[in-house]
Amino acid sequence: MPERPDTIVVFGSNKAGRHGAGSALLAREEFGAVYGIGHGLQGRSYAIPTKDGRPGTPNLRDPKATLPLNEISSYIQDFIRYAKNNPDMRFFVFRLGCQLATHKDSDIAPLFTGSPLNCSFPEEWAAYLHFDSTTTNQGKDNHG
């Protein structure tokens, strides 16, 4: 959990913005995530969709609701641009896409390559993050 009050939590969401479980529920209850908004900055949280959840799609409990990596990657790239454009903000990235969504850490973590130094990541991702130490985060857990 972020200890600094100015830290934005980055959590796995669904396109419908139904923040009812996992880090999404925590983001809604503690960090201002808005029910019904599935992407972007909300209060002290930033949503990255990893599941669908819209009407007419598989139930969120169904593994088929998990978004494909190329779609999640697009949302992650949006986040990286946002983080780079806001260097005075700090971001605490939860282990998104690997718990309620069904991807592996080895699939999701590398998608954050190119993130700026104002981002920190879960310890579980350290082995999968590949950063240039002169311009970006070095992939270690600096959540504290």
Topology:
Layout: E1 7-14, H1 22-31, E2 40-42, E3 45-51, H2 69-85, E4 90-93, H3 105-108, E5 119-120
Parallel strand pairs: 1-3, 1-4, 4-5
Antiparallel strand pairs: 2-3
CATH topology: Leucine Aminopeptidase, subunit E, domain 1
Strand content: 15-25%
Q: Based on the structure given, which CATH architecture is correct?
A: 3-Layer(aba) Sandwich
Strand order of the largest sheet: 2-3-1-4-5
CATH superfamily name? Leucine Aminopeptidase, subunit E, domain 1
Sheet of most strands: 5 strands, mixed
Order of helices and strands: EHEEHEHE
Globally, the shape reads globular
Q: How many independent structural domains?
A: 1
What integer value in Å does the Rg equal? Answer: 14 Å
Stretches with pLDDT under 50, minimum 5 residues: 138-144
Cα end-to-end separation = 8 Å
The overall pLDDT, averaged over residues, is 87
Broad CATH class = Alpha Beta
The percent of residues in helical segments reads 10-25%
Number of strands: 5
Look at the helices and sheets and give the structural class. alpha/beta
Count the DSSP helices: 3
